[in-house]
Write a structure and sequence with these properties.
197 residues; mainly alpha
């Protein structure tokens, strides 16, 4: 990290955003853990890839609050600091609207999302794909991997080749896991059938 980058980060106050993200502590995830940890993980992925834009990092910390807390008072988010309105707009951009299907939501970000919205969605998906390693539903893993290839790979191609590489590796790994799990389940069915006979 350069001196200029360190100075840019020096004035970034993330704690108030982390406090808002604690609203998500009770929200569990399909792959285990909770949504608060996912927010922090998404931010850490951005930092790992060298993103130091304060609005992007702050939005990562609270990116699921509006979607996952139905009665969330958005004024809490808007009143944190001078960047809050921009953070709020980015969070709204990556929040699925009630009338949107998942494909419509991802298509909207892919086709009309800002650069930061795409970067944030790719980091979010990397976090989700890592967690997918703890999911034992072959159908869910396959569907989520397909969705990632169809919608999130193109976003990653637009914004960050290194993030695309990690996503590609994760999808390949999860597909192997699903195939291995399917093979084990098939062998168990065969063994159960043999035992029955």
């Amino acid at each position: 990290m350069t001196t200029d980058e360190m100075l840019r980060l020096k004035g970034t106050h993330l704690a108030p955003y982390m406090q808002i993200a604690t609203y998500l502590i009770g929200k569990s995830r399909h792959g285990g853990g909770n949504m608060f940890r996912h927010q922090i993980d998404t931010m850490s992925i951005l930092v790992d890839y060298g993103y130091i834009d304060s609005i992007l990092l702050k939005a990562a910390i609270v990116h699921d609050v509006i979607e996952d807390i139905p009665d969330f008072n958005h004024n809490l988010l808007l009143s944190i600091d001078y960047e809050s309105p921009h953070v709020y707009e980015l969070v709204r951009e990556v929040t699925r609207r009630h009338e949107e299907t998942k494909p419509e939501f991802l298509t909207r970000i892919l086709e009309t999302g800002s650069h930061n919205a795409k970067v944030l969605k790719v980091a979010d998906r990397i976090s989700n794909m890592v967690s997918l390693g703890f999911v034992n539903s072959i159908e869910f893993v396959s569907r989520y991997s397909d969705e990632t290839e169809r919608f999130v790979f193109p976003m990653a191609r637009m914004v960050d080749a290194n993030m695309l590489k990690e996503l590609s590796d994760l999808v390949e790994s999860r597909r192997r896991f699903a195939a291995d799990l399917a093979k084990i389940k098939t062998e168990e069915i065969i063994l159960d059938t043999i035992d029955f006979i």
